[in-house]
Amino acid sequence: RIPLEAQQLSSPSLSRAYPQTVLQWENLILRNAQENHLDPNLIAAVILQESGGQANAYSASGAVGLMQIMPHDGIAQNFLCNGKRCFRNRPSIQELYDPSFNIAYGSRMLANLIKKYGDQREALYHYGPIDVGYRYADSIISIYETYR
């Protein structure tokens, strides 16, 4: 596990080991890493896992864009949590297809989860799909450690 202090230190650069499909978003990744006090390689690891760097990615569950964020509309609008729409305060599909908006929103979300849970693995667990448990978090951490 990576200590919380190390998780939130911005690296000056993005690893060149990432595929070009991810590196094409380098400027957006670096800007949002700095703004959210995240390692850009962590953001890149999420992008690689979630969309492979494809800005127009749309999952079977309704997640959208580079960081695969659930929108308030589309099939996600029918998901209920405690009798209320789960994602009612989220952006729209159209907004999330914008790479700049998607990386900014996903990076803020990830930074807030790290603050809330105080641990990268726990934050990634809550960022990922509900039905996969810690496998998702461990997959992102493995990508992060491999590519950084």
Provide a compact summary of the structure:
The chain has helices spanning 4-7, 20-23, 26-36, 40-51, 93-96, 99-117, 120-127, 134-147; strands at residues 80-81, 84-85. With 148 residues, it is mainly alpha-helical. It has a two-stranded antiparallel sheet.
List keywords for this structure.
single chain, disordered N terminus, mainly alpha, 8 helices
Describe this structure in words.
- With 148 residues, the protein is mainly α.
- It is built from 8 helices and 2 strands, in the order ααααββαααα.
- The chain has a two-stranded antiparallel ribbon with strand order 1-2.
- The radius of gyration is 14 Å and the shape is globular.
- The N terminus is likely disordered.
- How many E strands? 2
Would you tell me the overall average pLDDT?
90
Structural class: mainly alpha
Q: How large is the radius of gyration?
A: 14 Å
The helix count comes to 8
Write the layout of secondary structure elements.
Elements lengths: L3 H4 L12 H4 L2 H11 L3 H12 L28 E2 L2 E2 L7 H4 L2 H19 L2 H8 L6 H14 L1
Antiparallel strand pairs: 1-2
